[in-house]
């Protein structure tokens, strides 16, 4: 069996927060999937100044001593490496779109969704419109720009149209609170969504993977919410920053989130809707969607988060583990889907 040369595409072309977030997930992936008999891993690390580095590891020390080079030199280097495929680990908008498109131009395959699909789902209003057209329930909402006035009667959710990890999200219970909530949301972009608040219920995520061309629904992950004490999730529920400046996961403690019993009747219902979303959006290899479950047990699409870094704490990895799919098998499945029938290099491992 030939060893696959896999490039981990890490960092951010946007800001230090996304740089650290990317490094956090990618480090865990590298540590958990290292297997020199199968993979030869390389790292490309992009910083907000758009410079590239090719460090031997993702330690701060190795990154610091690796010479930064411009895109033109990076392309020359990449085309000389005989890379079999890329594992994208970037979470900023340029990382999800421009950098994936670059590898399309270089004709180097990459795991995960295409740049155009990522661009659509990064814009929450566009993703909602597409899945709604496919028959999926979505909260009634409106897209606002500066100086626009909301018309939805509270309670309502206000969120930036293109931010993740609940940055800038506010539950407005009274119309007098709209101004402050809008001001907060507009700090993260020029467009904001105002949505009708869906009463709890529950809040779950559903992952879908593609195996041998078939869509496979994974066990749901449920999040700690409460109609009175905690009606929505916040940034603090997802990530935390320590005194040393490093980011850490906050929701991976089986208290703020847990895997739903597969026999729970909501599982099959949500999986069917998630597969519909996957197909409507044109996803490939894997997908991940957030749903609000109302008091009548009806799922409402909230947003898509089409990421999987193949770190043990990645949501799709956790769901797959609960389904009896080890991390390396999950990665091999994605690699085989990426490379297609011409190069099923790992199918017999």
Plain-language structure description:
This protein is of the alpha+beta class and 349 residues long. Helices cover 32% and strands 23% of the residues. It contains eleven helices and 16 strands. The chain has helices at residues 16-33, 60-65, 71-79, 93-96, 98-105, 115-122, 124-133, 178-186, 265-281, 315-322, 327-339, and strands at residues 4-11, 39-46, 52-53, 85-88, 141-145, 156-160, 170-172, 191-196, 202-211, 214-217, 221-223, 239-241, 247-249, 257-259, 286-293, 299-304. The strands form four sheets. Strands 9, 10, 11, 14, 15 and 16 form a six-stranded antiparallel beta sheet that branches. Strands 3-2-1-4 form a four-stranded mixed beta sheet. A hairpin with a 2-residue loop joins β9 (202-211) and β10 (214-217). The longest helix is centred in the first third of the chain and has 18 residues, at 16-33. The chain is globular. It starts with a strand and ends in a 10-residue tail after the last helix. Pfam families: Dala_Dala_lig_C. Residues 128-336 form the ATP-grasp domain. One of its GO terms (molecular function) is ligase activity.
């Amino acid at each position: 069996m030939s060893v696959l040369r896999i490039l981990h595409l890490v960092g951010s072309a946007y800001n230090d927060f996304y740089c650290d977030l990317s490094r956090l997930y990618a480090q865990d992936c590298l540590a958990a999937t290292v297997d020199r008999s199968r993979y030869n891993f390389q790292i490309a690390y992009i910083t907000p100044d758009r410079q590239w580095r090719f460090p031997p590891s993702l330690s701060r020390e190795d990154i610091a001593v690796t010479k930064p080079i411009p895109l033109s030199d990076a392309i020359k280097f990449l085309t000389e490496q005989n890379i079999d495929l890329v594992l994208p680990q970037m979470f900023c908008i340029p990382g999800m779109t421009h950098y994936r498109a670059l590898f399309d131009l270089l004709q180097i395959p990459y795991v995960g969704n295409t740049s155009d699909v990522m661009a659509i789902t990064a814009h929450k209003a566009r993703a909602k419109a597409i899945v709604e057209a496919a028959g999926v329930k979505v909260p009634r909402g409106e897209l606002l720009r500066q100086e626009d006035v909301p018309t939805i009667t509270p309670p309502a959710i206000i969120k930036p149209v293109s931010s993740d990890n609940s940055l800038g999200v506010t539950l407005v219970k009274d119309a007098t609170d709209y101004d402050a909530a809008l001001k907060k949301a507009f700090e993260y972009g020029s467009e904001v969504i105002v949505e009708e608040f869906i009463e709890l219920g529950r809040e779950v995520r559903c992952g879908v993977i593609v195996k041998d061309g078939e869509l496979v629904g994974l066990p749901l992950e449920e999040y700690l919410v409460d109609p009175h004490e905690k009606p929505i999730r916040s940034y603090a529920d997802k990530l935390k920053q320590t005194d040393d400046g490093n980011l850490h996961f906050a929701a991976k403690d089986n208290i703020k989130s847990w895997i739903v019993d597969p026999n729970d009747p909501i599982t099959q219902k949500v999986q069917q809707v998630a597969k519909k979303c996957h197909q409507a959006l044109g996803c490939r290899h894997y997908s991940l969607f957030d749903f609000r479950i109302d008091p009548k047990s009806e799922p409402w699409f909230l947003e898509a988060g089409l990421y999987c870094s193949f770190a043990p704490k990645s949501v799709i990895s956790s769901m797959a583990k609960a389904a009896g799919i080890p991390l390396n098998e999950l990665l091999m499945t994605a690699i085989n889907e990426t490379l297609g029938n011409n190069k099923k290099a790992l199918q017999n491992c």
